[in-house]
Structure formats: structure tokens, C-alpha cells
Amino acid sequence: PTLLYLVPTPIGNLEDITLRAIRVLGEVDTVLAEDTRTSGRLMQHFGLKKPMLSYHLHNEHQQVQRLLERLEKGETMALVSDAGTPGISDPGFLLVRECLARGLKVECLPGPTALVPALLKSGFGAERFTFEGFLPVKKGRQTRLRELTQETRTMIFYESPHRIVKTLEQLAEVLGPERPASVSRELTKLFEETVTLPLAELAANFAARAAIKGEIVLVVQGRKEERIKEDHRADD
Ligand code: SAM
Known about the structure:
The protein is an alpha/beta fold. The protein is 38% helix and 21% strand. It is elongated, with a radius of gyration of 20 Å. It binds S-adenosylmethionine. S-adenosylmethionine binds at residues 11-12, 81, 83-85, 88-90, 113-115, 158-160, 184, 186-189, 215-217. It holds the Pfam family TP_methylase.
């Protein structure tokens, strides 16, 4: 029997919860939540009431052992994050890994996540893409940016509104000002917006705004394959 369920929740629009997510949240013994207040409100909206435990980045390591003991005794649990799919730039990975190592069955429900609509709204190639999550803020940032210059797949980043302009400017520096990029803001919400422009223009567009609010996904087109071949030829 499945003991742990990873349950995606809406990234804005509450209609995006799945029927299965509602059923599982109603059936498990305990709900593990990144923020019990946020998830408590969601549960209440769908008429659900369950014992909740907090499971977030800062207590993940110390919680895992205690949770494993309870799961091993047969308690069923659903892990939810504040929004979207648990384990995607959110806690979850550690618990899943430890459950699998002990032969405990884990089920992952498909559902809302911000990267997929942002990728598709960019109109860039979606056959092959790389999810970069959040760029390192300080240590390792330059190295990562340099590595990305070789990337031919479409790149997807999560970014905070305070850092988006700086990130766009830095990407324009390393990938070139003309590289097409797309910012999706407030996906599934009332003020949802997607702006697709060359990196330098996109940076200018956001730098000119009085305030940048809401959550952001940045999508950057990969490097054109031909250019790499040309460079290799130049190297010979
Ligand atoms: N687990 C989530 C998922 O599956 O997408 C991601 C959690 S991560 C801590 C939060 C980041 O996701 C935000 O900083 C933003 O980059 C992105 N995000 C979440 N909801 C979003 C939305 N409605 N519109 C745009 N970006 C969103």
C-alpha cells in the first residue's frame, strides 16, 4: 500500500487542484505541509480537515527520521508545499529518497507546477529543456552562468521579483543581448503576464517598472546548434 503521497496544489488559481488531489488529501491520516497555515486554508477551502505537521526546508533533516518511523507503522501521509508540486524547488526530495531506500511506497500525483506553463507560453522549443530552478545567489553564480553559455536546450529558471532585473542583465552579458527570453509573472492569477523579448530589451522593460510584484518564471532560448559548430571550426 502507498504510505506517502506527493500532492501538487494550485500555483494561484484554485480550480487547478485535481480531483485525485482532493480525494487523497481527504483519505490520508496526516498532511505534511511546508506552511501549515497556508495549506490549512487550502484544505478548508475544499472542506477538508486533517491533522497537519510542518515539513519545510529548515526542519526537513530532523523531521525525516520521525516521519519514517510513523510511515513504517502504516500511517499514510500526503506532502504538500505552499504552491505547485512538492520537490520542485521545494522540500520533498529527502523524504522520498529515504522512503524508497526503506521500501516504503511513494506515489506522486501529477498536477500544477509553474515551469510547464511558462515554458509553453514562451513559444521556445519544448522538445528538450533544462530546469535550472533558482540560480545561486552568490557562491557559484558566475560559474553557473558561464556553464549556461554552452546550453542548447531551452532553459527555465525560477526567480524572485527583486532579483529579476539583475539576473536578466547578467544573462544578457554572458549569453548576448539578442538571445530571446520570456518572463512569465503571476501564472494562473488575475494579473498573469508573459513578456517575450531579447534579453537586453527584457531587462530594460522590467528595469523601467516602478515595482515588480508577484512570482516569476524566466525562460531563455538555448544556444543555436549551428553556432557551436562554427566555433569548433574556428578552434581547429
Ligand atoms: N513547487 C513550485 C512549483 O512546482 O512550481 C515552486 C516553488 S518555488 C519555492 C517558488 C517559485 O516558483 C517562485 O519564486 C516562482 O519562480 C515560481 N512560481 C510559483 N508560482 C508561480 C506563479 N503563479 N507564477 C509564476 N511563477 C511562479
